[in-house]
Amino acid sequence: MTVIGLTGKTGSGKSSVCAELKKTNIVYIIDTDVLARKIVEKDMPALNELCGFFGGDILNGDGTLNRKALAKKAFSSEESTEKLNSITHPYITKEVGKEIEFAKENGYEFCVIDAAALLESDCKSFCDVIAVVAADEQTRLERILERDSLDNDSALQRIRAQKNDEYYFKNADIIIMNEGGGSVSESARKLLDFAKGKI
């Protein structure tokens, strides 16, 4: 089984590429956003660690995580953001490992790790191929405005907080341009063909 790491900036269209890949029935998709929510469910060790560092007021009255309260603290400084990542990433990596094993045991030809922070995480070590989905800033801005109901300034702030294209491109084995003009299904097919040739 070939493991593909799929990453890219916000609004690049990773989700649409994943949706096309999933249609083939030979690809198992691991959505790290889903795993990130799973590891901070009530009474989970990661949530307890977060409380230990950021304080008990990141919890709701019923003991579940108050995401806005955590975000306010975690993104208040670079140090706090790094601490958030240092607590959560090992738990996410462990869950990704379990998901890869599941995909292997169930006979999938490919396993795709869909992760915005793939290049900064230990999940990168699982990957045989790194694929970066890219789009120009205007296309990404339009997608974010539509998807997240943000105002223009907030969307631009989110875009510009990320690393530049060069950072992504220099770490990529293959770059998928997803600016709306081409076929996403064609891009997905090219990615799988590339991955087959890589191994």
Structure explained in plain terms:
By secondary structure, the protein is an alpha/beta fold. 52% of the residues lie in helices and 13% in strands. The protein has helices at residues 14-22, 32-38, 45-54, 67-74, 78-105, 137-148, 152-160, 165-170, 184-198, and strands at residues 2-7, 27-31, 110-114, 129-134, 174-177. α1 packs across α9 (184-198), α3 runs antiparallel to α5 and α6 (137-148) crosses α7 (152-160). The mean pLDDT is 90.
Shape: globular
In angstroms, what is the radius of gyration?
18 Å
Within CATH, the superfamily carries the name P-loop containing nucleotide triphosphate hydrolases
Structural class, by secondary structure, is alpha/beta
In total, the number of domains comes to 1
Strand residue content: 5-15%
**Helical region count?**
9
State the helicity in percent bands.
40-55%
The CATH class is identified as: Alpha Beta
Largest sheet, in brief, is: 5 strands, parallel
Summed over residues and divided by their number, the pLDDT gives a mean of 90
Strands, count: 5
Please name the CATH architecture: 3-Layer(aba) Sandwich
Low-confidence stretches: none
